[in-house]
Write a structure and sequence with these properties.
The chain has helices at residues 14-36, 40-63, 75-90. By secondary structure, it is mainly alpha-helical. The chain folds into 2 domains: 1-37, no CATH class; 39-90, no CATH class. The structure holds zinc ion (ZN). Residues 62, 67, 69, 71 line the site of zinc ion.
């Protein structure tokens, strides 16, 4: 997670959008956890359900032709991509994953 908070006005590309969403989801998770005292695993499932509901509602609006942006949802493929993204992000990171390593110095 980035040390610098990203404001919505800082979103300029996929990377900054991901950082912003990571921060918002973590903040929301912590607030719901602290307020509700529900178990963390249940709060995680509620967040996953909220994402699925968001997909269904946005996809439905596009399938109904309510949005002129041109996106044509393909629910079977889109939901598999969402499932894959969740698994990839949630799985423990391998220690030898070069993308997750912090540069310690210069050669
Ligand atoms: Zn659209």
């Amino acid at each position: 997670m980035s040390a610098q908070p990203v404001k919505v006005s800082d979103i300029t590309d996929e990377s900054s959008a991901q950082t912003y969403l990571d921060q918002m989801i973590m903040t929301t998770f912590c607030r719901v956890l602290d307020t509700s005292r529900l178990p963390p695993s249940l709060v995680m499932r509620l967040i996953a359900t909220a994402l699925g509901t968001t997909y269904r509602e946005v996809a439905s609006a596009h399938l109904d032709g309510q949005c002129p942006c041109g996106w044509c949802p393909l629910p079977t493929i889109d939901i598999e991509a969402l499932r894959s993204s969740l698994e990839e992000a949630a799985a423990p990171k391998r220690i030898d994953d070069l993308h997750s390593m912090v540069v310690a110095g210069r050669a």
